[in-house]
Amino acid sequence: MTPVLLADITVFVLSVLVGFEVISKVPATLHTPLMSGANAIHGVVVIGVMIVAASLDTTIGYLLLFVAAAFAAANVVGGYVVTDRMLEMFRR
């Protein structure tokens, strides 16, 4: 394994662990507003997918790009659905 790949895997694993710890500590009353705020973060991921798409030239790269784009798009759409449902609670 190359040192760059090892560093990338290390950062990924650490971010997954930190993310899990942070999200697991969120009380249920704050979960919906937190998910609604995650829309902006996933929007940035979609932009990152488009930037990376310009420089790919391998089949595995295209496959990983498709998976990243699908997850990011699902999170953006899901975040807007959650936000809409949350805002519906405040309408009469």
UniProtKB/TrEMBL annotation:
Organism annotation: Kribbella sindirgiensis
Cleaved signal peptide residues: none
EC category name: translocase
EC numbers, comma separated: 7.1.1.1
Catalytically driven reaction(s): NAD(+) + NADPH + H(+)(in) = NADH + NADP(+) + H(+)(out)
UniProt key word Cell membrane: yes
GO BP, sorted A to Z: NADPH regeneration
Native organism taxonomy: Bacteria, Bacillati, Actinomycetota, Actinomycetes, Propionibacteriales
Boundaries of every NAD(P) transhydrogenase alpha subunit C-terminal domain copy: 9-92
UniProt name for this protein: proton-translocating NAD(P)(+) transhydrogenase
